[in-house]
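Sanity check. The docking grid for guanine depends on where the pocket ends up, so I'm generating a full predicted complex first rather than guessing from homology. Inputs follow.
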Amino acid sequence: MDQKLLKGKPVTEAVYNRVSQNLAYLKEQGVQPRLTVVLVGEDPASQVYVRRKGKACEKLGILSDTVVLPADISEHHLLDKIKTLNADSRNHGILVQLPLPANINEEKVIMTVAPQKDVDCFHPQNVGLLVSGNPYMLPCTPAGIVEILKYYQLETQSRHVEVVGRSNIDGKPMVNLLLQKNTSANATVTVVHSRTQHISDHIRRADIVIAAIGQPNFIKKEQLKEGSVVIDVGINRIDADNEKGYKLVGDVDFDDVYDTVSKITPVPGGVGPMTIAMLMQNTLTAAAAQNNIKLPSE
Ligand code: GUN
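Predicted complex below; grid placement will be based on this.
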């Protein structure tokens, strides 16, 4: 086995075991967790992600619905649909797949999802709880990255983690998770982004680099400290001479950095599968909270 590769699969298995225990417990209490995923339009990548979310629910025994809405739906109609889902007590989690068509204000959509059902941890109330150190829900991809680091016994405590990218989905919540006061976090975190000067100087000081930029093969070996750990959040489609006509690559140039790093997540098969595993956990967290139940393992 390649000792350098931080594969997501064994980590998802450990998470799914925990989720299954929690699910059995909720069902014993008469609660049948349900997740609704809303997909607006026909973006091919979003269609793939939404399908995977439904499949993960099915495999575990979580009820799920996928609501597919046309790309030209008005913002008003979409917000109404979300309000209906908020009011349905059989439905515990709501996820609106991003990105949304340009005519729809993403922030309004995020604000409309009931905080208790916000399994993405995007609502300002849930972001606020995370920032203040008392999270209700953990953001899926960042929480999945913490699970990977824990599983492979890569300490973040007192180490320098560089987060590359400042998106609301990945970079910013990653920073907030790593700043939590617990032994799975306690990191010294710095962030670089598209307006940072001398970006490489910062990245080269880090023990752990978390790349969430959305630019294929952006990070090269010259930018990394020898022996650093690299977590690659990027999933970029680039043209390729194969049947599909494309292949997936990360934000880090894997082949270029391979000899420099001590550990690295592959793309695909690294961080990607973690997001859905954590979404399953969040669905149960939401179902438990809405029924005043404390889960046995979180
Ligand atoms: N689009 C890309 N990643 C995500 C995610 O984690 N949640 C949602 N809702 N949309 C996304």
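Relevant for the grid: The chain is about 40% helix and 15% strand.
Also worth noting: The mean pLDDT is 97.
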